[in-house]
Design brief:
It is a single chain. Among the domains are: about 45 residues, no CATH class; about 50 residues, no CATH class. The chain is about 35% helix and about 20% strand. It has a two-stranded antiparallel ribbon. A two-stranded antiparallel sheet has the order 3-4. A two-stranded antiparallel ribbon has the order 5-6. Strand 9 and strand 10 form a beta hairpin.
């Protein structure tokens, strides 16, 4: 009785490999493909690349990723798993972008959704202001300011000026009275007793 073969030669690379290195093919006498899995994978990858290039599309290069790490397709860097948010529906349980890239994307989405601006348009607006806050003309502008009634973007303010406008509830009259008060032009009653005021003479 003839012994069952335990190895087979690949017709493409010529190597003699264990039978496990060949995929099944029920149309062959021995029930295995004539090319080893590695050669079939190489051919498939090359064929895929040719098809993508024919369609004018790019092909992602395969990157060796160490154990416990993941490649971020957004920034192209390999980072430890701790640099990723969890995503239970993903095959590897991690988000598709690293935390850093996701934060950038969230900022861009917020700008577009809330103010209808891209980052480039916001930067253009800051440049048109001379790179400083519209109100104090000194601090670095970081907060997009808009009219809460119309949604129209007015400019980019520093944190303090943006917070101050919010405290005044965007009421021009209150802001004018505050300016007059600071300049010493506002009516200033004199307290003479608890709850009793006297006009200055």
């Amino acid at each position: 009785m003839a012994e069952e073969p335990t190895a087979k030669a690949c017709r493409k690379c010529g190597r003699v490999l264990p039978l496990a290195a060949f995929a099944r093919d029920k149309n062959r006498c021995d029930g295995l493909q004539v090319h080893c899995r590695e050669c079939v994978a190489e051919y498939g990858a090359a064929h895929y690349r040719r098809r993508r290039e024919a369609m004018g599309k790019t092909v992602r290069e395969k990157v060796d990723v160490p154990e416990g790490h993941k490649l971020c397709r957004a920034c192209g860097r390999v980072k430890p798993r701790s640099e990723w948010h969890r995503k239970h529906s993903a095959p590897d349980g991690l988000a598709s972008r690293c935390k850093e890239c996701r934060a950038v994307q969230l900022r861009q989405d917020h700008l577009k959704r809330k103010y209808g601006l891209t980052e480039a348009e916001r930067d253009e607006l800051i440049a048109s202001q001379g790179g400083v806050c519209c109100i104090c003309l000194a601090a670095v502008p970081a907060h997009v300011d808009h009219c809460h009634n119309t949604g129209r973007v007015r400019g980019v303010l520093c944190f303090s000026c943006n917070a101050a406008l919010g405290q005044f509830k965007d009421q021009p009259e209150a802001i004018r009275r505050a300016a007059a008060y600071v300049e010493g032009n506002a009516w200033k009653p004199i307290l003479v007793a608890p709850g009793v005021y006297q006009l200055p003479s």
